[in-house]
Every structure is written in structure tokens, then in C-alpha cells.
Batch of 3 targets.
Target 1
Amino acid sequence: MSRKKNISKKIPNGRTFQTKDNYFYGAENYRKPNVKGHYRRVVVVDSNKKDELAVVKLTTSKKGIPIKTYRQGKSKIRPFVETRDFRNQPIKRNKYFLENKSSYDFSKYELSQVKKLLFKTSKNSKLNSARVRKLKDRK
């Protein structure tokens, strides 16, 4: 009996995207001063068959948790899963979320580190898990 996985065929987990902070749900009025273009990098931690994405923001701030093997440890993550855009629609590849080259992708090891952090050790692990379950239409 074969099981069909509920993940995107077009966008692999670990792929990175460029966007702006004000394209996320709840941050519509945020404007980063003196910055043009898509400046925020996000990484896909999960997806569903409809190519809807669950992403995590990458940051360089001191508040972030470092991923030592990705980009010489300069990139860090904030342990919050995002699944909605500023229009309260699921996050998809579109003009607001632009896909990066595959050279920027997270490796399987780095992605497993991020998932472990998000779903097991983070203070928000229950909220993160609930968001991904809702994305995948599970109860």
C-alpha cells in the first residue's frame, strides 16, 4: 500500500525565498526604513500538495538562534513558523515571495536541526506544530 505524502512536488523543504517583513500576517504596517527590494530571507520547513508553505525567518540579529553550518554561522533563525501572508492567505511562491537559487538551500542536516528546534525545544513548539498541522489539513 503506497502512501502519498502531503508535500509540494515543486518546492522542496529547505528552499529559501526573499520577501519583506510587511508581507507576513500581522505585520502589514511595518516598514523597514531606508531599504528597497526584498530583504528578508525565509526558509521552507514544510509544505502541502497545494504548494502552500510553512516558513521560518532568517535574521542576523543577536536574538536569533545560530545555524552554525549555514553560511559560516552568520545566519540565524527566529523560532516562529509563519504560514499566512498579509492578506491572510497561505504563503505561496508569487511576487511577494521570490524563490532564491538552489545554492542558498538548507542541507538536510541543517533543516533537521531547524525542525528539531522549532517543534521540540522552542517555547512556541505547540503553536508551531499546530500551524503546520493546520497547513496540512490534519486535526
Target 2
Amino acid sequence: MKSRFIVVAAFVLVAALMMSCATTGDLKKLQAEVDAASLKADQAMAKADQATRDAAAATAAVQGAQAECARATDAAARADQAAARAEAAAKLAEDNAKKAEAILLKGMRK
């Protein structure tokens, strides 16, 4: 009984080993899968590099736009100041014109 069990166990072990051995076809299939995964990884790396370059270009564009916005804000402030000065000058000119007219009318009455 014991020797029969050993013989059956040996056959089961040999059968299991034969089933688990990799064939050349299996190895080629595995190599093809590894190559495909490597290709996908390379493509993903290239896309990541391009995305990094695009992000850097976008950052530079944003910085340029911010600088342009600051210049526009400064120009608007200067324009507001110039408009205020022009308004004050116009009011002063109007007041002087009224005074001159009053002096002229006063001189004509005499």
C-alpha cells in the first residue's frame, strides 16, 4: 500500500511538473507581452514629456499675459489721472471765462 501511494504520488508529481513547464511558444508570447508593455510605457513617457512642454509654454503665456495686464492697468491709471487733470483744467478755464465775462460786462456798464 505504501509503495503504491509513492508510485501514484510520483506520477502526480511528474504530471504536475510537465504541465507547469513553459514551452517556447509560451516564452515568445510572454516576450511579446513584455515588448507591448514596454512600447506602451515609452508612448506614455513621450506623451508626459509633451504635456510637460505644453504646460511650460502655457505658464510662459500666462506670465506674459499677467505682465501685459499690469501694463494695461498702469496705462488706465495714468489715463484716469490725465482725465482728472483735464477736467480740472476745463473747470478752471470755465471759471476764468466767467470772471472775464463779468469784468467785461462790468466795464461796459460804466
Target 3
Amino acid sequence: MDDERAVTSQAESAADLGREFFAAIDARDPRRLRATLANHASFRALPHRDVIRPADEIVAYFGTVVSSYPTARWDVTDVISDGERAAVQFTLREYAAHLGRELLSEQIAVFRTSGGKITSIVGYYDAEEFRGQFWNDAPAP
């Protein structure tokens, strides 16, 4: 029974850390974001991309992200967790006044945790779709 409770606690911890990570980004709160990360944490925006580490560099990276999208919102829509791992589905939304519509990108990030901190994050998203949504100035047909 104790082993079962420990696994459940770890699963909740990974899920909670994933949710808190995106809540901190959405709140544009670097201290809160840093509190989710182990000192040696690593981040990759996509698999096989350059690794960003340690934790302070990850916080700096996301500082540039939120600066690039000043009115964007990060909303967690689903979390699947198992032990010290969690897959977090989220939606990035930003209203584009020049287009008269909201830009939207659905993404997923896979988190590994240990000791109540995030140790690894790998993002998965359609890079072409994202570029088309957020970087092209032409209105959608």
C-alpha cells in the first residue's frame, strides 16, 4: 500500500510540476518558473535540437519567449503522468490585431522529474504550423 501511495504521489508531483511550469510562464514570473526546475535541468524545444541548460539558462530562454509574444497565453489542456514523468498538452494563444484573429498552436511537452523538481523537458509541436501561424503576416485564406 505504501508503494502504491508513493507512485501516486510521484505521478501527482510530475503532473503538478508540468502544470506549474506553464502557469509560471503564463504569469511571466521567472522566480516561480525557476522554482520548478532542478539546477541541472535541461530543455529542448524539439527533439534533436540544441539542449538548453542549466535551469537559469532555461529561465532566460523563456524570458525571451514571453517577450516575443507579449499578450500570449499558455493554457494546459491535458496532463498524462506516470511516476516521475508527465506529458503536458497545452495551447499557446495570442490575438493578432493586424490579422483580426487569434493565433493558436497546440503543443505537447514531456517532463521528467526527480525529487520534486523538473530535470528534463522536451517539446513537440508542428514547427511549420507554428511558423505559419505566428510569423507570417498574410491573413489566412
